[in-house]
Amino acid sequence: MSSPRPESQSEQQQTPPGTLGEMDPKPDHGEESYRGSGRLTGKAAVITGGDSGIGRAVAIAFAREGADVLISYLDEHEDAEDTARYVREAGRTCVLVPGDISDKAHVKTIVPKAVEAFGRIDVLVNNAAFQMNHESLDEVSDDEWDHTLATNLTAMFVLCRDAIPHMQAGASIINSSSVNSDMPSPTLAPYAMTKAGIANFTASLAQLLAEKGIRANSVAPGPVWTPLIPATMPPEKVESFGQQVPLGRAAQPAELAPVYVLLASDEASYVSGARVAVTGGKPIL
């Protein structure tokens, strides 16, 4: 796959969580470019936030590599159905589970639905996240703080805890962290804090699960062009989004998917406890 070179994004604004239909330019999720080679044949995967962005790109790639997929998403039904279409066109099963993962009662329904559909879980991708840009801590309400932690941290914890009993040796947990995990943006303080927590939790999990033969890794993306960006940042920041990294642009979701495929595959059998940077040249510690 050649590196996408899309036209730069213009000033634009959406309401959270954002949808693909309103984005300009449209992100590339590998719909036309990703070619599978059987690296995940027969595996069953759960992906949160799989309707758009990184999650959609991962769902498409996983399916074309031979995996069945359950996609958890909030309420972007049109985007989710479109992602499911690509999964099914690859000849794989796709289960859609809408709902707010900040609601613990809802998040507890996801693993049972995957087990009902697939009989087991081979790959768990905790990718869904919430962020909001604020210039002052006074702008962060108690409700927003609680919602950020519930979405980004608690849901991940519950899904890991619920999924592990249905995983066998060789299974893989992949959690989406961020370059913000150790280089936090001051205007994304709650989000950045949760992303550091994800990286730390994943490192602990890798050690806890080693004796079971289950691997746990995190991916630390830099700027990625997804609906979350115009839905949570002011228009002027959207226009310049991604220009601060050495490669000078935001990533396309399709550029993240191969890393998730590797970590999910048996080829990464000795990779556990890693945090993989996909940051356009911006180093992480």
UniProtKB/TrEMBL annotation:
The keyword Transmembrane does not apply. Residues 23-34 have a biased composition (Basic and acidic residues). It comes from the Bacteria. SUPFAM superfamilies: NAD(P)-binding Rossmann-fold domains. Gene3D superfamilies: NAD(P)-binding Rossmann-like Domain. GO terms for molecular function: oxidoreductase activity, acting on CH-OH group of donors. Residues 1-17 have a biased composition (Low complexity). Residues 1-39 are annotated as: Disordered. Keywords: Oxidoreductase. Transmembrane segments: none annotated. PROSITE patterns: ADH_SHORT. Belongs to the short-chain dehydrogenases/reductases (SDR) family. This is NAD(P)-dependent dehydrogenase, short-chain alcohol dehydrogenase family. It comes from Geodermatophilus nigrescens.
